Amino acid sequence: MLFHAKSKTLEHIYFMTDKERAGLMAAQEKSELELEQEWEYCMKNQIELVLWHEEAFPAKLKNIYNPPYGLFYQGRLPDHRRKAIGVVGARNCSAYGKIVAKKIGEGLAAAGITVISGMAAGIDGAAQKGALNTDGYTCGVLGCGTNICYPASNRELYQQLLQKGGILSEYPPHTRPLAMYFPQRNRIISGLSDGVIVVEARERSGSLITADFALEQGRDVFAVPGRIFDTFSQGTNRLISQGAGLFLNMEDFLKEMHIFMKTEDNSAGKEKIVLENLERLVYSCLDLTPRNLETLMMETGLTLGVLIENLEVLQQRGIISEVYKNYYIRSDTLDS
Amino acid sequence: MYSIVSTAVVCGIQSILIQVEADVCDGMPTFEMVGFLSSEVKEAKERVRAAIRNSGIRLAPKKITVNLYPANLKKSGTVFDLPIALAVLSAYGRIPQTYLEEILFAGEISLNGEIRPTSGILPMVLAAREAGKRTVCVPRENVREAQIVKEIIILPADSLLQVMELIAKFSEDPSKEVLKSDNNIEETGLKYHNTEYDFAAIHGQKILKRACEIAASGRHNMLMLGSPGAGKTMAARAVATILPPLTEEEALELAKVYSVTGLFEQREDNFRERPYRSPHHTISVAGLAGGGAVPKPGEISLAHKGVLFLDELTEFQKPVLEVLRQPLEERGIRLVRKSGTYFYPADIMLIAAMNPCHCGYFPDRNRCKCSRTMIERHLNKISRPLLDRMDLCVEVQRLALSDLTTKGMEESSAQIRSRVEQTQHVQQQRFAGSGILYNSQIPVSAIEKCCPMEPEGETLLKEAFDHLELTARGYYRIIRVARTIADMEGTEQICRSHIQESLLYRGIDRKMWDWE
Lengths: 336, 516
Description:
The structure holds 2 protein chains of 2 kinds. By secondary structure, chain A is an alpha/beta fold.
């Protein structure tokens, strides 16, 4: 009341000193000025704002408990007629988790589904990259202003999202990425989605908050199972034991979500890869946890030169990949 | 009366002959010293006066003037005590002037007239021989140092009185040689002392051992990454045992560095062994590069022609590491001070070790809890230009208990050393007459000539250039390492497999952390 009072009214308030009146006036002017500047900034940088009561506001998000009053966004907003799936997980994930996230992103995009995530390092980013690789639509919900690329290491992804997807946030531009904003933004991720897949999570993890929000909002929660001793599977396995859906493969997942693939599945055209003896030996020593050269040398008994030669061939065929320097992992399941 | 005595001043690892002149005349009984002296040389006055008196020599109170010639050279160090004392005694007529100018005298004197050892004797004796002097008089503790120099007569000095006697005897019978130089010292270094750190004691670690052999063969720099306790330090020590012994010329140059630092006793028993220095990470810039008002050699010069091992590389202060960049390229360091420019050789093989992340377990994600930012911050402690100069980056594996307990047939250092010698021989034949000794020293202009490549290898290298985001320096370093690998196999042409292996050891830093 007092803040919006006109100067004349203020004069009549007997308990205020002149100094206090002047301070209040200055604050009023300043906030108006700032608002104007911010608006200009948004116009210039194509940051748009959609409010809750507006038509364009994402329908799914409208009906959740505690929806944001509005969304700032760059790029495109998700299409509400399409199914949307949130893919979330740990930032410090395993190499295996990253590959899974990427595959999920690719699979969802191929089925014409929107991928919602948080553009974080690790699982989030990998899933979104996967979706972009398959020319799907994906949008990142940030816990800071949309004009800030957080984390900075995802600069490339950020640029791609600006062009091919969307970046949105309930926070105005220039908001710093503070820890307290992130749990709140998770409710938007689940709110925009019809279902959420948790790829990897520790026992205590931000991804589990997203899962909680999803349940509150009546969304389906799926988790990718893992080995029981793996730190990053503790959280996801726990979700499954609590009744979350088990993510087995893309086909089953889509069936359970009552989504029917638009595109013809291309497994028929997939040619069978035939490996030579040595290649098969090297391949058999690899699994979904990264193995380094030293271990491979010991297990295969090959000399360094022969081993590198074979690894290179396998890599070119796309069935293994080098996840860290001199660390290899299977990147595709091979029918044997 | 006037007298003149020969001595020498050390400047870097070189030495320049100078003369000490003394004049004694009637007048006020003062002791004046001139000739661009540093404070420790000015203090010599008091030591000399007391030493002469305590030796039982009474000098009449006269005006004494001492000049160190030439006056444009800054005189520092404590070697001038003995020549100053002798010049004064000779000016008083207590000892004959004959021979004082022909013999080089050096030594610190104590108040009771005893002669004490000093640093820098070796370069002085070398300078004396070059100037045509046949005799030197040095403190007895420094005799072994002087004996390295061939064809020189050494008079060991114990005390002022004994030196006076020696000169008197010497002047009566100049042909009588007191001590000859001892050539046996050359052989003493051929035995290796550190058998404790033999490669035979390292189990498994095939890739690490291979990298060590390549590094030793071509004198490439090496960076080891590994979790705590994986054996990085042990491997670095073992590398020193597979290096062939120093040549005589190299050993002499190295001994000079140790001599001016006052550490000659460290080289006495292993004259031909390559040095291994592993300074603690709290070392200062001056400690590593050399420094002081009159600069002394630092650790990089003490590791000249040998191994400088920097353990826990990330813990070193940043400026200390950056100081390494230029000496690594120029194989020496030039220190410029007000008193002059000092050049110390520093042809080192740099071996460094660090943990891959703060906790040390990356990329084992079940054990490593470091976030990406933490890992990046850890790596960023090492600057890119320094990393660029590391030719081989290799990961040291944590071994399983079963690997440690198996009594396998591991190659000994001696076996590996003989191969390294063979490979170095190939290199030296190739570079004969060009002043280059190892593949790591091939200048960019000679790369094309020295490193003929298979076309397939060239394609692979071009792909890698983009893929690994190499710098020009990194590119040439890969070729140099490939050259060494080819030499180890005895092929003149660099094949695709050599480039392929060389690439294994490159860019761990980048690929390891950037796991896309």
